[in-house]
Amino acid sequence: MTHREFLFVLGSSRADGNTEILARRAAEQLPPGVGQRWIDLAAHPLPDFEDLRHDSDHVRPKGDDVALLLDATLAATDIVIASPLYWYSVSASTKRYLDYWSGWLRTPGLDFKATLAGRTLWGVTALAHEEEVVAEPLVGTLRNSAAYMGMRFGGVLLGNGSKPGDVHKDVAASARAKTFFAQEAPLASFPYAQG
Predict the structure, then answer these.
(1) How far is Cα 15 from Cα 82, in angstroms, rounded to an integer?
(2) CA dihedral 59, 121, 45, 138 (to 10 degrees)
(3) Residue 78 in contact with residue 119, Cβ under 8 Å?
(4) How far apart (Å, rounded) are the C-alpha atoms in residues 99 and 138?
(5) Which residue from 118, 156, 112 is spatially nearest to 4, judged by alpha carbons?
(6) Which terminus of the chain is more exposed, N or C, with fewer CB under 10 A?
(7) What is the pLDDT of residues 26-56, one digit of tens each?
(8) Is beta strand 120-127 parallel, antiparallel or unpaired with respect to 35-40?
């Protein structure tokens, strides 16, 4: 297998929250030599995304948090979106990061979509609801984003927890974390394209 570089994008407003705990538990299982880079969106906030799709002044960002995240995204073979379930989807900071993908698609010289094609998108989330099906909007956001980009989708590692540290009590999530990144991630597809 070729060398892998994991980028963990932390989208919680709380440091060391349940989602991050679960993501770190899964990351502990990665083989030695697999690169790991962790970027906390609370520590590296992105400005509001400005949609310039139909303008011509797309330029590569330099020297700011946007450039940091762009470069880290381009360097990753595996991107892990670690966002708590906020109102049944990803957090606002995570959504903003994904919105920036729209601009990067149109930035000259990046070949953003072609670069990410074939790489893998993963998700990790903690939710305060007993029924995991309520996380389907978050799962759909990530799966459909991966499908659009021609990426593989490794699914979403779900854990239960509301108060800080609650996810430690979720024995099933801990067991899933041990093998989460070991699975083969299929090429993502939109739901309408599935048989």
Answers:
(1) 12
(2) 120
(3) yes
(4) 15
(5) 118
(6) C
(7) 999 999 999 999 999 999 999 998 877 666 6
(8) unpaired
Is residue 142 a contact partner of residue 155, using CB atoms and an 8 Å limit? no
Tokens standing for 182?
């070991």
Total residues belonging to the chain: 195
Closest-CA residue to 105 (of 139, 73, 153): 73
Judge whether 107 and 27 are in contact, CB under 8 Å: no
Cα distances (Å, whole numbers) of residue 128 to 27, 54, 74, 170 = 22, 40, 33, 11
pLDDT in tens, 66-110: 999 999 999 999 999 999 999 999 999 999 999 999 999 989 889
What DSSP letter does each residue of the chain carry, written as one string?
A: ----EEEEEE--SSTT-HHHHHHHHHHTTSPTT-EEEEEETTTSPPPPP---TTSS------SSHHHHHHHHHHH-SEEEEE---BTTB--HHHHHHHHHHHHHHTSTTT-HHHHHTT-EEEEEEEES-S-GGGGHHHHHHHHHHHHHHT-EEEEEEEEE-SSTTGGGG-HHHHHHHHHGGGSPPPBP--GGG--
